[in-house]
Amino acid sequence: MNFAEHFLHERRKLVTRRYFFRECGVGLGALALASLLRGNEALAATAGNPLAAHAPQFPARAKRVIYLFQAGGPSQLDLFNHCPGLAKYDGQPIPKEIVKDQRYAFIKPDAALFASRFQFARHGQCGAELSEALPYLAEVVDDIAIVNSMTTPAFNHAPAQIFMNTGSTIFGRPSMGAWVSYGLGSESQNLPAFVVLSSAGGTSGGSGNWGAGFLPTVYQGVAFRRSGDPILYLANPPGITSDMQRRSLDALKDLNQDRLDVVGDPEIATRINSFEMAYRMQTTAPELMDLAKESKQTLEMYGAVPGESSFANNCLLARRLVERGVRFVQLFHEAWDHHSDVTGGIKKECGATDKPCAALIKDLKQRGMLEDTLVIWGGEFGRTPMVETNKEAGRSQGRDHHPQAFSMWLAGGGIKPGLTLGKTDEFGFNIVQDPVPVHDLHATILRLLGFDHTKLSYHFQGRDFRLTDVEGELVPKLLA
Question: Are residues 44 and 64 in the same domain?
Fold first, then answer.
């Protein structure tokens, strides 16, 4: 039985037995509690602090995660997956035997093939092929692993984003960051375990992408605002002194703790933790958000400008967060849904994201943090090798959604650097070598963090749930 299962099992016994002793009035409540917790210091600590740090099942290669989620579906064919066949057959209908019974939302299956307008070249000692749209990533290509054979069953944005982040197309499941916080706790006393930053537009999947689902809500992501205080009401209202606030919080904590001792509801522990975390963040958050304290060289490397809201600022802030013990930081950049002018769209978004992504890798590496920080880049699916053109909708030279094959990259935290994994057919339509389903990616991420994905589970509605549902296999080729 792993720690998570053991914690839940003991928690259930703790709640039911303690409630029985208290309600029956036999005066044995304290004795029962001490007996249940004796010899289990980790459980005792977690009962008082749901986010107390604890060890994983196995020695971990990664201690923390930075997930650069590129919402909208970046075109792998214009960034990572060089397909000469597209150039050879540009403008011709895709062969029917390739498309078969595939249906699309905005294009016909026999739409013309559309070659990338970007040049590709090999970079680094590994010789990985990258589009000219990624000049900065080319500088760190030996530090990353590119997967050109990702595949997903989800076709539309909201379910595909939810699937990538929670392992299910159904809303209400715990997100990856919540699972990691549940499994490992937090190394920070003054900041949330799971922080969410956003730039560009809002995600189709909304807050479900970083929710706790049926896990206690203490494990859900905390979304920081794009400007001003990261969370509302960090500052006390006029007339409320720090001493007054502390005495009020102590009174609330005592009341909540009394109720928690009776019923053992984990949401009460979440409430206590939230009040205390907000109090501590009043002093730590302003310093955290002050990017002006970074060196001029660092700001220039990221392209960050203190006081602005940007993907570059968020990448630098992600480094500052993990430095301070935050377990899981997720950046959402919703801007890659290029149904029209995919070439112009790629240029624009790479102009906003390429430099800071590469800077994050360089920065973590020079600080000695890359080896135990897992960095993930990717969206919810890819784009079609066929062109999307629709005069009525004002679209031309775009690409539709493509779940069969797309690209992601990973770095640090035990990932094999300089690797390019997976191949597609000459058109980039189907995978022909080393397919990586989303659940396999999830299983591999959890293994790098020290977990067997089948054992990190939570009992809910009569069965044990996990991030990978009932699927998922480790991808050994990705491991260093």
Answer: no
